[in-house]
Hints:
By secondary structure, the chain is α/β, with parallel strands linked by helices. The protein contains 15 helices and 19 strands.
Amino acid sequence: MSTFSTHNFANQKALIRVDFNVPIKNGVITDDTRIRGALPTIKKVLADGGSVILMSHWGRPLKDIEKKPNLTLADFSLKPVVPYLGKLLGIEVQFADDCISDDAVKKAADLKPGQVLLLENLRYYKQEEKGDKDFAEKLSKLGDVYVNDAFGTAHRAHASTAVIAQFFPGDKKMFGLLMEGEVIAAEKVMHNNQKPFTAIIGGAKVSDKILIIEQLLDRATDIIIGGGMAYTFFKAEGGQIGNSLCEDDRLEMAIALLKKAQDKGVCIHLPADSITADKFAADANTSSALSNEIPIGWMGLDIGQMAIAQFSKIIGNSKTILWNGPMGVFEMDKFQHGTKAIALAVAEATKNGAYSLVGGGDSVAAVNKFGLADQVSYVSTGGGAMLEYFEGKELPGIAAIKS
Ligand code: AMP
């Protein structure tokens, strides 16, 4: 494995796997975050005097066309990215309307230092998602160096994200800057953390988070559990949770987790009180209750004031913080306060020197909603990939580069 930052790309063709799976409506890119995210990597290669061949997937063309025959491959084209990227880079970006055709091979071969070529959607070929070796080898021939900058697909063993790496020697395959940032942040939290290490786990279901919690039991000092999943724990302990979310088939598992945590000396913190609602709706009537004394007809949709104080104190004493999942139904104004207060507590702890990583799904949406993304140490863009990393799984996209 080589390091992107120290590699000199002069006169080399960098074949970069990016994630340009951006929302495009009627040919217009409505959110360019992922394109902008790839710019530092692209610019470094160009500044070195190298050329860039970009490859990405967009949507699920073959699966969607099968379901909706009125769609065609053209509906899944990466072409709208060409002028957009060109404008951001201030140069003309070339396009090959197939990723492995003779045209693509010729355009890649003719590329001069300072030039950029974007290949058409990799998923026009079923071989991409199948991780087909021949397809990966054909792609590999297009460039001299393989750079993976698509952390969002690092948990997939696809041709362009993992299989392709075997066709490059160790010093010619590497993470791009975006992916390197994600890997460093994830490793810092899970393997090189400073204690006390607090994990804040929220969201709807305990069944979705069980693997993460299991991993954290070997690493964290404190685990804060909020959101809908907390009520399964309260019910398991004999509490009254009214109509709150509960997975009745996970009650035993919840008890087992609490026991395991106790055995390992990890403190699990559940929200002492809740903001309750008489229905799951933005215009519900609200009240508050102890989380294990919620009356029938009411449901806990946010953590309450006592819980906010309790959690904020733990967060304030932490040196490492991992946050995954909201504390309540933050999409509705009446039930966003708990999540916002926790976001503010994480921001405050970060200001005081803690390392904080917000990763995976809705907690990322929450810090963005509250305008606090730049006040935490790292916000991961790799939803599913980051979750699988936290679950202790080896990500094929990372393993392929490191091996
Ligand atoms: P997840 O994708 O598992 O992280 O769950 C995120 C979802 O959980 C969000 O859409 C929240 O609205 C929802 N959620 C959080 N707290 C609760 C709760 N107390 N009751 C029901 N849903 C909740």
